[in-house]
């Protein structure tokens, strides 16, 4: 995967490859990530995988500059968060609730 740049914007583009060809744990849906973006995605994936296995619930996480900014497992969504995202808090699925709870932990960094 060709990346936008190395660790810092002034560095030349980086390239990463999965350990097993064609088996990426993440997928780029839009844009072109930087090396740091890829590290954040891979670290988030590892944290979510471990949390979900240990706690037996869906999990979500986000990283900012290779440090965890938010992490949460599925659970109830509070009224304030439901109103903020204009959702029915009782109709939210497990993955969505994990994401919303994680994002709500530090919305500015996330």
UniProtKB/TrEMBL annotation:
GO terms for molecular function: IMP cyclohydrolase activity; phosphoribosylaminoimidazolecarboxamide formyltransferase activity. One of its GO terms (cellular component) is cytosol. Gene3D superfamilies: 3.40.140.20. Pfam families: AICARFT_IMPCHas (PF01808). InterPro entries: AICAR_Tfase_dup_dom_sf (IPR024051), Cytidine_deaminase-like (IPR016193), PurH-like (IPR002695). One of its GO terms (biological process) is 'de novo' IMP biosynthetic process. Transmembrane segments: none annotated. It comes from the Bacteria. This is Phosphoribosylaminoimidazolecarboxamide formyltransferase.
